[in-house]
Amino acid sequence: MQSRITDLFEIDFPIISGGMVWCSGWELAAAVSNAGGLGLIGAGSMTPEVLREHIIKCREKTPYNFGVNVPLMRPQAAELMEVIAEQKVPIVFTSAGSPKKWTGWLHEHKIKVAHVVSSSAFAAKCEAAGVDAVVAEGFEAGGHNGKEETTTMCLIPAVRRATNLPLIAAGGIATGSAMLAAEAMGADGIQMGTLFALTQESSAHENFKRLCLNLDEGDTKLYFRKLSPTRLAKNGFQALVQEAEDRGASGDELLELIGIGKTKVGIFDGDVENGEIEIGQVTALLKGREIETVAQVMERIIDEYYYFRQDLINQAMEEIPSRRTLR
Amino acid sequence: MQSRITDLFEIDFPIISGGMVWCSGWELAAAVSNAGGLGLIGAGSMTPEVLREHIIKCREKTPYNFGVNVPLMRPQAAELMEVIAEQKVPIVFTSAGSPKKWTGWLHEHKIKVAHVVSSSAFAAKCEAAGVDAVVAEGFEAGGHNGKEETTTMCLIPAVRRATNLPLIAAGGIATGSAMLAAEAMGADGIQMGTLFALTQESSAHENFKRLCLNLDEGDTKLYFRKLSPTRLAKNGFQALVQEAEDRGASGDELLELIGIGKTKVGIFDGDVENGEIEIGQVTALLKGREIETVAQVMERIIDEYYYFRQDLINQAMEEIPSRRTLR
Questions:
Q1: Could A152 and B148 be called an inter-chain contact, meaning their C-beta atoms sit closer than 8 Å?
Q2: Which of A32, B116, B181, B249 has the most crowded CB, counting CB atoms within 10 A?
Q3: Rounded to two decimals, what is the model's pTM?
């Protein structure tokens, strides 16, 4: 399944697993890479020492390329980058900051760079900063979101027009048909978070996975617009946030609510009632499923992709070749 | 361009123009039908007498099928339906209410029915109620939105699974590539609002069209969640709403803000600073364009669709026929 993304990252399928906090450890990254995609380790919830361990274990588990996701606003971002370079990780995905900051340094260390954007203007900035690929992530994605709230359907065509870079679509993708849809709009590959966060190999707590695999449409919403927009699943913590926002709580009051480590409490420790549960809208599409392995999930997505694509091709072949003229 | 939607409505291209308040008069509906799609008259902003005039004028202007959109919560919904039946309009799109209420009656009058949904559960209800097609409309659409805030990318695969009915995708579609994406996810046709609202034939005020053709990503947001979620473009009125919601205004306080006829003020009368401006997120993709005719817009979309589809087919043809096995 060749594309500019499979070429760039030397992978078989243009499928990347997002580097999500508390979910994307060495096991998940290695499983995705072993299945033919690109696994990312999520450094957002790791100290430099923990990250080093995960990179080493990941390398033991897979002979294929994998990468690390670094949210640039992290206090220890520089130390994380040092570990990545020291360990000769070949690919880094950056987000939550300027692509100009680290791209040059990463390239000096022979590391390929993709940057996550939520607007076409920012995608153009990424191209100017010299990144190798952009990830265009829509409103439906779990966790931190862009202020524009632009959905994947509106964002991909806009970013496709704004840049010639290899383009990875993210947000709301969990089926082969959505993968095909992203390609139809000009994407060269896809990144998925939710689908992989809820696999066996994800390092999230089982309670988190079971909760998310039981959510309905409408059970995730965007909060904290006064601070940094974040998609949360409904639970006790979210109810407190909803109530606070409904009565007009200020940014400072909301900051108190968040506290430190609430995502760890929810996603990693398994207190799904009081912790912060970050997951994408698309979780509703997975409702009722078992917690599957990465291999099962990859096989299904790829099968579906080929099935829907063949359907599209058959439709096209059946049409009368001459284009219908407008009346 | 045959599909279950072109068959159902006897049209050339599976493209429907949404029946939007203040925009979708007889001119727009007739132009879309004359261009090979299905034009809808938006009865939401019409009295029964005004609707009758529009239907008669539309019929004079186009020999092809057109329909009427009726928001069921409208006070005069029953009278609107009587006019539609009296005038032998062949197609009705209903929204904002139960599909069980009017579907039987419309069918008795040999009128085909499509119902607008924002969730897969509601789509299943529509199938049970006997509608002929469902419109699945995502979060990115202008105006009234579903409470779930599910995006088109997440909604279409979910609705496709929930019902076998002919499926029309709506919300965030304004290019041939997005039209192809909707088809990739199993939709049988598309409905577009924003794109058609900003054409010459749209009955909206030129100020509205110019404002919307100058909006950026992030310039529309969802408001009135305490009442009925509505997507508004940024302007003076929206700023008042933002301020009120930020300080926790109640539903009643917000109702006062809305007043009566604010959408008419903005969309029809052209006071784009104080009126309510309802438009979809995808307006940002049209930024900088001239106000084009329906014929120009239809030709571009169809050209783009074929272009992107051929690209997809070429990609598929170049691949090694045997499926790559997972590692």
A1: no
A2: B181
A3: 0.96
